[in-house]
Structures are given as C-alpha cells and as structure tokens.
Amino acid sequence: MSNEKVLVFGHKNPDTDTICSALVYADLKSKLGMNVEPVRLGEINEETAFALNFFQAEKPRLVENVSNEVEQVALVDHNEFQQSVSDIESVKIIEVIDHHRIANFQTKEPLNFRVEPVGCTTTILHKMYRENNVEITKQMAGLMVSAIISDSLLFKSPTCTDEDVEAAKSLAEIAEINLDEYGLDMLKAGTKLENRSAKQIISIDSKEFPMGEKLVEVAQVNTVDVAEVLARKEEIAEEINATIESKNLEVFVLAITDILEGDSTILTYGNGVAKVEEAFDVAVTENTALLKGVVSRKKQIIPALTKAIG
Amino acid sequence: MSNEKVLVFGHKNPDTDTICSALVYADLKSKLGMNVEPVRLGEINEETAFALNFFQAEKPRLVENVSNEVEQVALVDHNEFQQSVSDIESVKIIEVIDHHRIANFQTKEPLNFRVEPVGCTTTILHKMYRENNVEITKQMAGLMVSAIISDSLLFKSPTCTDEDVEAAKSLAEIAEINLDEYGLDMLKAGTKLENRSAKQIISIDSKEFPMGEKLVEVAQVNTVDVAEVLARKEEIAEEINATIESKNLEVFVLAITDILEGDSTILTYGNGVAKVEEAFDVAVTENTALLKGVVSRKKQIIPALTKAIG
C-alpha cells in the first residue's frame, strides 16, 4: 500500500450513511496503514448532525473538487459518477464500498470494488473491521449503527437485511445505546422541516438517475407530519419546476416519507408524470399520490421508475 | 439464499482463468447451498484442455444464451457486457467475481460485486474458500493454480501480485504439483498454433473494448516461436481486415507473446494504427512492432490504448 494521500467520500447531498461511512472507512483504513482523509460533498443534514453530536465526532471537511489535492480517491455509499464529485474522472479510484445498483461507473484499471446487496454501507464496513481484526471503538460503533438506523428507517425499509439487523444489534452494544430510543430520536431530528426553505426540502436528499435517454430526479424527506409539508406545496412546486427546467429532467419525484406509518406521499412534476402513474399503478391527482408501504427509494421507487421510463 | 438455479460463466473466447473460475465458483457455492451450474460461452483452448485433463475435470457445458433456461446468473472473470453472453441484459446478475477494470456494466438493483486488483480471478475465489471455511479439494486446487499460472504467465506478468504468488504456492501443495514444471508444460500446451487456422489464431483469446466512440479489438496468443506465427502474416492480415470491416473496428491488435522472453510482437491493422504507435511510443513497420517487456493485455496494452484512443 503506497502512502500517497487518499480522500474518501460518499455521494452528493450527503445522508447519514454517506457521512458516517466516510468517517468509518478513514478510521479503519488509517489503522491498516493508509494515509486517508474523509471529506464530504455537501452540507450535513439535521439527522446526521444529531448522530455526529451524540457520538462527539467531527464532520468531514467540505470539498468541491478533489483533483486539485490528490491523485487517488475511495468512494463509499455510491458508485454512479453523476452522484460523485464533479472531477471524479480526473482521479484514480482505488476502492469502492457500496450497497447500491452499479451504473455509470467505469475505470481504466482494476480496483477494489465491493458492493453487497445489504441495507447500509456501514454493514459492509462492520464486516471489514472483523475481517481485518481491527477493534471497533465506541464512537465508530455509534456512527455505524446510526447509518443503519437511517438507511433502514429503524428496520422498516424493505432494503433492510438480516445482516443489517445483526450488525446494528452488535454495534448498539458497543455504542452503549438503546436501539429504539436512540433510533427514534435520531430519525425525528431529521424531520424538522419547518426551518427549511422549499429549495432545501427538495435537495436535502436528492439524487439524479439517467433512465434510457432521460434524466430523472428523486428526492426524499422523512417526516412525522406529512400535512405540514403538503401545506407548502405551492412553493415546493415552484422549486421543482425550476429544477426540471435547469436540468432538463423528464420527471421530478419528491417522496415525503412518514417514518411512523411507513408510507410515502409523492409530489411529482414534469413530462413523465404519466410514467410515474404507470410505475406505481396509482392515479396522480394534482401532482400528488400516496404510495402505500413505500419507504425505499433504492428498492421500491427507482426500480419501478426504471422499468416504466428506462 | 433461494434455491432457484443459477448459471455461472466467464467471458467469451474463454481462457483458463475463465473456465476454471466457473468450475471453482460452482464447487464453492454448491457447497454453500446454491443451486448452480458452470457453463461456458465458447470453445476450450489447448492450454485449458491440458489443465482440465491433468486434474480430470469435465469441461462446463457450452451455451449460446442463458435467458431461455434461467432468470439468475453469476459472472466470473469479466464484467463488461460486450464480453458476456449476448442476452445478459435479459437476466438478473446476482454476483460478479472479477479482477478486470469495470466498464459497460450496470444493474437495476444492488448485487454482490467483488473486484480486486489481483492477477487472477481464482486468487479471489481461493480467498473465498478460506473466508467461508470450505475445504479445497486437490482437483479444485489444481484448477485454481492453473488459472494463476495462465494469467500471470508463470508469474512473469506485471499483473501478478504477491497475493497471486502466495495463493499459487499454497494451492500447488494441495494439488501436489511442481509449480515450474507443471506451469511450463501447461503454458507450452497452449502455444501449439500450427494446427490453427488464421481465423482461430486471432480469436482464441480476443476481446473487444469500446474506447470513447470507437471499438477496438485486442487478441493475444502465447508462443515459444514468434517467427512461426509471423510466417503466416498474410493470411492472418486477411482475417483481421475482415474482422475490422464486419465489426467496424477502429483498430485490431494481435499480440504474439513470447512466454520465454516476456515480450510481445504485435500485428496491427485499421484506421487507428497511428494511435497504436502513439500508445506504445514505437514505429509500426509493415503493420508490426516489438513491444519490449509487454505481456499483459489488461495492465499494459489496454490502458495505453485507452489513453491514446479513448
């Protein structure tokens, strides 16, 4: 292993898994001798801030580009280039640890690439500590279990696997937390939307997906009060339509996910709204529809949209 | 793990690593409870036939399509769709074990995807036996070490890592072979080109690579007598030019690799020959050039061509 510096980061519009995975990867790899610094590609959301604060972890440094500082990077929690740093094609990717579909990714040379169909990237990182016999500190356990709670919505999401649940239980012990109590507190911290602008609401956790020749954007917010978000429909619609125009999107879907009920209400705009209806077999009325039992963008929303549009 | 049948296979124009990896993956995974059958996408070459015969292993069944028999597949030793079965996009890929660059690969859903920058796929499979505490039989050890010898040209290739060498030594003990003696016998078995047609010579081990908007094909043959191959230049050129025309290739490179010297002589045709000169900083005279110290398509030829063309 060369001692040249490596930056590690997750996707744009970082969520708790992306931020915690970068911090945890850096901890593990630096203990294995790598010269690595965790960085982030955007602002920390309130759920992530709650977790970092609870476990007294510093947030990673914010960067806009990476090729100005390093030649080598590692990616966690994403692989699609359009979700990564803008100059990703100017650096060498030495490793990817992820749990998403693989697409829009390529390298000139072989690398370490590990994707597993589990609910959370830190579930894979947890396994890597064990494989390498590296001890897990209370702080790192706290970050890993926070990411699992976040990605699985406290085990409610269909993306959640037995491996995630087992890892979370084991990590909760090391982190000395009560899973349900800490988990609900953390998730609720992420639902405070009243101080957010409409623009923030549609970009806190938003990702773009090329489907066939079209580009689709799907944003998601968690809440315990869907009506509160819907009351701001007019200003949110304005921001969504501006985004559709500037990015030439086929369709924009905002999923407002009720973390207590385990359902999502969507707001959707663009030429592709009929395809959204087809994808979920629902009628979209005044740009809104309730998707019963839908909480996972990755496992439920994207595959259905890809089938209808791509 | 569902008990639905899975087919596992390596790339088109199978080499020893691709065939042995499919057999070994099926052995390991069936011991772990998967309903899996190894298959192949093309004829076995003479080097591979030598290894299978030596270790009394049956060659995998030949298939042209897979979606007519199964819904799920696993890929070994490749990930790029153009190197895979023609109907790869009609089936679900549940796992990939590979050691090549990643490109032209995508899925709708997350999967198990493990790529490591080692010299041979069976080096990764060897690790997976250990991780899963599955005993390695003499036959499987023989197939794995044969693949490592093949891909590393008996450890001469720059793709060969310490991990490959260690795995080969450990596997040679289980397989009860002398590495150098068996290795040279096996490699020499693959160099018998006198009974091969020119068409076979350029397709025994040939792969296509999209580079930018262009398509490039690079074939490789091993020999202990380069002059013997060059004596047939005229008929080989005819086949190469026919291939260029039918596939609309930018350039075709045939690397004739001297396994004793560790050099390659290339024969190259097409519009992109000037780019080949640029890639390797050599003069191509009458469509031929000597590439000193070049034995690896993956590590030496493809990156240089991609830089010049892509």
From TrEMBL, chains A, B:
Mn(2+) 1 binds at H11, D15, D77. Binds 2 manganese ions per subunit. It catalyses: diphosphate + H2O = 2 phosphate + H(+). Its main location: cytoplasm. GO terms for molecular function: inorganic diphosphate phosphatase activity. SMART domains: DHHA2. It is an enzyme of class 3 (hydrolase). It is found in: Cytoplasm. SUPFAM superfamilies: DHH phosphoesterases. Its cofactor is Mn(2+). Residues 183-309 form the DHHA2 domain. Keywords: Cytoplasm, Hydrolase, Manganese, Metal-binding. Mn(2+) 2 binds at D17, D77, H99, D151. InterPro entries: DDH_dom, DHH_sf, DHHA2, DHHA2_dom_sf, Mn-dep_inorganic_PyrPase. Signal peptide: none annotated. Its EC number is 3.6.1.1. Belongs to the PPase class C family. This is Probable manganese-dependent inorganic pyrophosphatase. It comes from Alkalihalophilus lindianensis.
